[in-house]
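tool_call: predict_structure(chain=1)
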Amino acid sequence: MSFKKPLPTWKAQGIQPPEHKLEEGWKAQDKPPAGWLNWQANTTYEALQELQDNAVDHRDVTSEPSESGVVRLNEAGKLNEAVLADAEHKEITLKPGVQIVESDQDTPFNVGSIKGRTLINLLGRAGACEDASAFSVKAGAARPTWFEVQLGKGMLATWESANMGSTYACFAPLSTALKAGAHYVAIASVGIVRGDMSAWVVLRKEDAMDHNGNRISVGMAASTCAFVATGTEKLIGIYFSVNNAVGAVNFDNIRLYEISQTEYDAIATMTSEQVAAKYPYVDSMTNVTNPYAIATSGNLLPPFTEWANNGNKKLHDLYELEITTPIPDDVNYYLRVAEETTMTLSVEHTGLIGVNAWDANNELIGGQSIVRYTKSQQASFTTPTGTTHISVHLGNVDGNTSLPSCKFKKPILTPTTTPQPFAPQSCSMWAAECQLAANPLDGSNADVLFTGDDGLPYVLEKWKKVKLDGALPWVYDAAPKAGVKTVKIAGFAIGRDNSKKPVSVKYNGELLVVGGSSTGADIISESFWHSTSNHALIISISNTDSGWGDAYEPTADEIKAYFLGWRMALSSDWSAQYNGNGDRIWIAIGADALSSGAATLTLPTAPPSVDSTWQPYRLQYLKTKPTVEPVRNYETGLTLCEGSNVVEVGSGIVLREKANTVTLGLNYLINHKDAPNSALKYRTNDIMSAYRNNGRGSNATIATNNAAGLGGSFAFITPQNFDPTAVYHVTYTMLDPTLSAPINGNVAMNLRGVVSDLAQHTGDIERRLSVVENQKADEESPQWIAPTMLNGSASHDASPAMYKKWNGLVFLKGLFTTTSSTVIFKFPIGYRPNKSVILNIFSVTSGNLTPSNLEIKPDGDVRVGFHGTDYSSLDGIIFEAEQ
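tool_result:
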């Protein structure tokens, strides 16, 4: 057959890199030896040549190709040129969740695009149902015996006695008034735990008339209500029909979204479960965040090194383990699967095997195993309705006794009805750390992630996302009325589309209103935002939130402390606002005020270190002109193997975050609540993988659904497996809700398509390697730029200069003199940090060294603190540019 793409001929054989380099790959600081690059290029050339020379399996001779175009020889041993004439590809959309994708051959999945989406829960984070005080309005005679928060499972209302009443309701006040004539959808997860009762989501208006969702009377389901607002709605909550019965009701994930007329009309044709799936629960304002797709084929079970509870077992091989403990014991592995999926588990063993099915609340479905412990070597089962994940258990429990010794070998789980021959797990992933936004009402102007011509992910970014924290240059503005103050940032978001309103949320996730004035609290000044000359952001803050009394005008640093998560108070009465008299104290917002580190008498310059519900204010606005931004942290290489592939599409993944291991007792911990310094950046109940020096073999044991984990998951390494010289990383998914989105792409339909894709990917890799080499060359001969000195500042001997590396790091050098603490020079766009950076430098006065500091602002201004009379030095200054 004829191939259109010429072979990338490369005959210099080179030298194979050592095993550790093959495992960890190239790093940014590497300068690969020519022999290693020759080896890679030659091996690729010879492999592609072998594919072209032997493009058909000679042992599989059929007269016709398969329907999907898999190439075979005909009866005469000739290639079917009709199939090989052109590379054929098929468009595929991978939907959020778990799905099974069939493939006739091994083929790369080529990611095409992912569109952004934004949802704003108007209830804020109160909808997570983790704070009973948020539902402060009660109604009805049937007051529950218990009304309690269940960690990670919402709230539980329990009636322990009969004849307590007929109805009851609990409501959370709406912080944002609904717009008359606008369309909304309210959704809640409601579960009847026991008893003859029912419950549903409800909105209450001023005149006590309600918008009611569908009634839930059996099991856990979604109660939904789409409605047109009157503008008088004040409360949202759950209504209980108790019927004087004994029982209990669970409710969770309450959300209220404004939707478009088109979406409102479409809901009329959908079931409540479809509505809940289309509008999943999120806290506050949430975008499509860190999307990923993981394909697993051959075997859904990993080696025993990745199973839980394997620490005291004898590991004979990657897929061979022995339990010798005299007490009940097992090893287990949890994995996500879809409901109503037929699967088969096969294990060579002398113990017992079992399977449990779990729902979204980590509750055991049906109250018992779907495969109860059995001595059979295989078991087929179908996951019940409501299943989100299953756990596979291999143990020694035989009735009321424990087997003294049992072995397990070659476990394999497949999405098939019959047992399959053993094969090790084959797993591949595509992931990108980015946020993809859109208009929250109608989905317009969506950010789009796409694959560039170099094979790497990029984002066509239409929305700018800003964290309104204490690093920004906040100043006091005014006190428009009692109980409210306004603060502002001058020169904010000059590149914004000022004809469109921004969207913004405060620290508790509640929406800020973009209004015509700032006389009320939690309002963004609309007139200033739309101004074409005064580029200011003005936000009003209630004194109740800030702790600033009516008679007090906060300083710029005190305003920054508020946006870092601190409330000011009178030190002698923490509930009193500060009016300028007496001593001040700052208390962490959303934290237990009595916990260590939750209060300080010193003006804070960093966020609280204690566990808190506070999160920074956030704002998103439409750019005047979209920009293409590279994704900095990603993994590519999603591959579909021949046969059945279980593909999970999700969001919220964090790739290879550096872990801080902390010793507690005998073990080294990661993300453990008793070792706060081991915390990861985000809470998680799903640490997926741990790495040692960027390679496998960390020997870490991972726990999930465990109260000791910060979010439910932690990892530990035993002393005999810990390497004190190594750097550990983990990949995990965030616990806080994130939005997922479909991933559009294509796969090859015939062998010619597969070979073309491989050739394209090889070319992409070679281009990226050449970029790395060029960047290394640039680093060896950097191009230093001299800034323009301002306000009387001047060079001294070695002139100040700046240099920016390819990875965004900016280096400074040189000496300067100045006569005042003012702007000494200004960084150009591209060299500026995303937030203010304060760095230590030294100055010289009369020949003596004196410590000082340098402040670099997001607008590029560079200011010096104490300035020496002789000179000050910039040598050794390094920071990351993010603009």
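agent: Residues 56-71 have pLDDT under 50 and may be disordered. Proceeding to next step.
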